[in-house]
Specification:
mainly alpha, 64% helix
Length: 157
């Protein structure tokens, strides 16, 4: 269970660290600044090609290093980013600005999607998936505040 939680944190922390240490370098918006029919951005400028690629790459590498294999890491990284993009897309449809807070919506999809899909190779039962999603939610909120105090995040969650 700890390995799965670690990989979720790698996947979701990498884009935040990339923004801090790389700034705007190669931070191309994934949605190419397209607007949806509702007049809001499709995803928003905070979702970048760089963030997605680095998150998936680092999660793949981390999984290989801890002995879970690169394929599982690739799956967890990609599915976590898919969940994060779903959250952003949903928030834009609700008229919420990028980086706005949406309790649950900001944490659940990016943890639940990869854990549910990869439960069997991770050796997780359904109640462990639910427990890990809850732990991830709490950790993400707490770590967000720590990263904000260290001037790594732009705003606390």
């Amino acid at each position: 269970m700890l390995e799965a939680l670690f990989l979720l944190l790698v996947a979701n922390g990498t884009p935040v660290l990339a923004r801090k240490f790389l700034g705007d370098h190669a931070a191309w918006p994934l949605d190419a600044n397209l607007m949806a029919a509702d007049g809001n951005p499709l995803l928003g400028e905070s979702k970048t090609i760089r963030g997605i690629l680095l998150a998936v790459s680092f999660t793949t590498l981390a999984a290989e290093v801890i002995g879970l294999g690169w394929k599982l890491g690739l799956s967890i990284g990609a599915l976590s980013m898919a969940g994060d993009l779903f959250s952003s897309f949903t928030k834009r449809r609700l008229g919420m600005p990028p980086s706005s807070k949406a309790p649950g919506l900001d944490q659940i999809p990016e943890a639940l999607l990869p854990l549910a899909v990869c439960a069997t190779p991770l050796g997780l039962r359904w109640h462990e998936v639910v427990m890990l999603v809850a732990i991830f939610w709490v950790l993400e909120v707490l770590l967000s505040r720590v990263l904000y105090s260290l001037h790594i995040r732009k705003q606390p969650w």
